[in-house]
Amino acid sequence: MVCLEKNLLSFTLWNYTSDHSNSAGDVWNGEDLSIYSEDHKCGLDNTDPCYIYDGLRAARAFVRPYAQYVTGAPVVNEFDMNKGEFLLVYKVNGIEYKNVPSEIFVPKLWCSKKGDMKVTVSDGRYEVEENEDWHTVKYWETSAVEHTLKIELLTHCK
Predict the structure, then answer these.
(1) Could you say which of 41, 66, 75, 102 would form a disulfide bridge with 89 (CB–CB 3.0 to 4.6 Å)?
(2) What are φ and ψ of residue 116, in 5° steps?
């Protein structure tokens, strides 16, 4: 996924096998790639902010922050899951966006409360909107040519 991000490519990658188990894998051709397994459920209560991830395998690798709207041309759009850091760098592309922010999706798997993230911007202003299962970081840049937004995630679901 890091290679896809470094090349600024959008992607969807998943394999779901409803009857996956630790002993039999995906029950096809010896594969064990499913993103979900009943064997991985922890039995979280539906009031737990990580409830929607219960049973997912390696969720931290594929449920990750990403830029869903960028008001310019992306130069860097990457997430380092080992450090829990997201970085977006983009340049003005000649289109004028009046009061339209760039938006970053941040799943609660990585940051359960908006106070648990440190956001740094090169210019302009930002705000964090909290939704039931994710946060949206909105960033309104100023007239600079290149803009940088960094999000450091201080806590995450285990």
Answers:
(1) 75
(2) -95, 15
Classified as helix, coil or strand, 85 is strand
- Alpha carbon 111 to its chain centroid, in Å, reads 10
d(CA 112, CA 98): 31
- The β-bridge partners of 100 are none
- Give bridge partners of residue 120 from the DSSP assignment: 150
Q: Which one is predicted more confidently, 65 or 157?
A: 65
Give the pTM: 0.83
* Nearest-angstrom CA–CA distance, 20 and 103: 35
Query: SS3 for 114?
Result: helix
Quote the Cα angle for 78-11-153, to 5°: 30
Beta-carbon contacts of residue 151 (< 8 Å; ≥ 6 apart): 65, 85, 86, 87, 104, 106, 117, 118, 119, 120, 137
* 3-state DSSP assignment of residue 96: coil
Least confident of 15-19, 68-72, 98-102, 114-118: 15-19
- Coil, helix or strand for 75? strand
**Which of 21-35, 36-50, 65-79 shows the lowest per-residue confidence on average (mean pLDDT)?**
21-35
